Every structure is written in C-alpha cells, then in structure tokens.
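Exam review. A common question shows you a sequence with its structure tokens and asks you to describe the fold in words. Practice with the pair below. Do the first one on your own.
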Amino acid sequence: SNNSNNSSVNDISLNEKNSYKALAYSNLASCYYDNENITDARDCFFKAYKIEKARNNYDGIYFNASYLAKICIRDKSKKALDFLIEAKQCAEFLNEGFYELEATLALGDYYYNQASLKKEALIEYFRAKRIAQILSYSVDISKIDKGLEALHSEGASLRAMQQQHEDDINKRNAGVEAEYASTLASLAESDRTIESDYQRQMTSGANAE
C-alpha cells in the first residue's frame, strides 16, 4: 500500500523474536554506508548492534561494532575506541583468525593516529603481524611492516627532537656556566687590581715619611 511505501525503511516492522531482524538492519546499514548516507547507516548499525548484544551473538556484535567504530572515527567520536575494543574481544572469543587480524589492525591504526598512543599502536601492529604470519597473509604482513617502519621513523624523529632539545639545554647551561666563570674571573682580576693599587699607595706613603 501507499502508506507502507511511505513509512521509514529504518523502522523495519518485524517481530522482535525474528532472528533475521538484526541481519536486515545490518544489510540496510551497509547499503546506506556504501552510499555515504552515514546518518542512517549509524542508526541501522546501532539497532542491529543492540539486538545482537541482547542475543549474545558475537559474530553480529563484531560486524556492527566494527562499522560503528569506522563511523565514530569519521565523526571524531571517542566512542570509536570502545567499539574497536569490543570488536576485537568478539573476534578473540570467536577465535576467528581473519576477524582477529582485521580488529587488531583497526585498533592499531586508531592508536597510530593518536599522538600520545604510538606505543599502543606498536603493540597492536606486532600482534597483527603475528596473526598474519600464522594465517600466511602476505599482503597484510606487508601493510603491517609499512606501519611499523612509519612508527620506527617517527620514533627516530621524536628521539632526534628530544636529543636536540637536550643539546640546546646543555648549550644554554654551558653558556651560563661560561658566563659565570667569566664573571668570577673578572671579579678576581678586579680584586687583584684593587689590592695592587692599595699596595702601591701604602708603599708611596711609606716612602714619603
């Protein structure tokens, strides 16, 4: 009917006990996501996510949490980390190698893009590399190695900056010490001059007598 055609597709009229309801929301969300309709995608992924949570369906939680994390990253939302960690926990519970690899890489990428979390990124990338080696995923290993090289390069740059900072401090300290030593030398020279003048005056006075 026209009324049913005009109703919102986001409000799928299915019985709550229908095991396909979450899948229907996920499929709809994926279509929205692929067409850059992020608002509706977020809404449908979250509805599917809540249903899967209620059903303790770790496969479904992993899928929807992974996409919700991507959307949160786009929106610069701090909830992204929660979804990434949950997706990884589900992958580990399922003991599904590909899921674990994808979730670990995603978490590593998230940490990599946070200035203060480079160490955490390194840990996740190493974990991902071990998983990829076990699965013999050469493409993923190559991608991970590039991330590790970038982290190593950034680490070297940070260490160089730190060393430069320390060198600057040492130079400033050396300059202060040199200036202090010069001042002491000047004072000592001044004292010697005063003493010499005093001795001359005493000698002159004695001769006059």
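Now try the second one, then compare your answer with the model answer below.
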Amino acid sequence: ECLNKLVCQNFEDSGYDNSESWRETVGTGGTVDEDDTTATVLRGSQQLKLYAGDSGSTSNTYVSFTAQSEVWFHVLVKFPDGTPTTATYFITLSDGSSTSAFISLLQTGGIRAYQGTVYNAGATIPLFSNDTAYHIWGYYKASGTGLNNGVMTIWVGTSTTRPEAPECSVNTGTAETTVARILLQEKYQGTAYFDQVIVDDASFTTVSE
C-alpha cells in the first residue's frame, strides 16, 4: 500500500514510520502524540492524537512531499466530539507558505471543503458520530492561471473503499498553487485522532484494513 506513495504514515512503532520527517507544533497545554494508545486505536497498534490545548492554542503536525498540481489523499479520523462548539479546519494542503485547500469540521457536525477562496458544504448533518472511525478521501487540483477551475472533492465513509458519491466538492476554486504539504490540526481545545495518512499523485479508491 505504501509503495511509491508521496506520503504513507501509519503511526506504528516509535515516532513516525516509513522514515518520514513530520514537523510538530504543540499548543500551550496541548498534545501531539504519534504513539497514542489511550483511546480505541483506529488501526494497527497506535494512532496520532492531537489535543489543541488551552483556549486559543493550536496543535498540529505536517509532512512535506514533492510539489504536485494534483493529489489524491486518504486520512482515517475520529472525533470525540463530532459537533464542536467552534468550527475548525483539521486537514490542510499547502505549498509550504500559503494554504491552497482545507477541510473544516462545522458546529453542525458537517464538513466544508475549501479550494482557495471558494467553499462548499456537505449535505449530511451531522456527518460524524462521536468516537467513530471515518475514512476521508480527497482530491485536489490546482486552478489554471486566471481560470478559477480548481477542484477540491471530499468523500467520507466507514469502509476501506471510497464511496461513489462525494460528500462535497468545489469545482470553481481559485488556488493556482501546487501543493507540497499535508497538515493535520486541532484548535479551540478540541481533540482528534488520525491514522493511515496516504497522499499520492495518482487516484486510488481502496486502502487496507
């Protein structure tokens, strides 16, 4: 599954696996634990735990990869609170200096996909049940110069096969930048768990158990 992938992180063993160099920011009173076993583990024997920390703090971790104008990605995620008191973005794609696209968890429990300055919300409200594992699949495509035809499509499911229908999609995005970084984040005193982070320059629709 990890062969020739841009990113393939399963948070097994001590630290980050597959010789990947992730960079962490730990908020005041927060947690970034890539060896977490304190909650029901999403997959394997360990997972990533992010706790934002004190009010106003942010905790995150990211990894860089070769810049791409198109990427497909997968993240396994679980939220103790699927309807947070404050909306927060939890997966972002960037070129390392400016954010090109991200996914936001809304107070309603739904999600919103952003590509540049354009966004679209999913129809399922609420989408996430508390303490339940979900597979999030995404596709990003940079806009052509001045064309506003960038794409950010998100699928959400509970199986290892990507659903046929997306939860939400942007097709008129404004971000023209290639992406070279995926960042996982928690803000506003929230907690989230992540596992099985895969980024590729080719489409894939299944992951292993």
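Model answer, second protein: Residues 60 and 143 are 27 Å apart (CA to CA). The first strand starts at residue 7 and ends at 9. Full marks require stating both points clearly.
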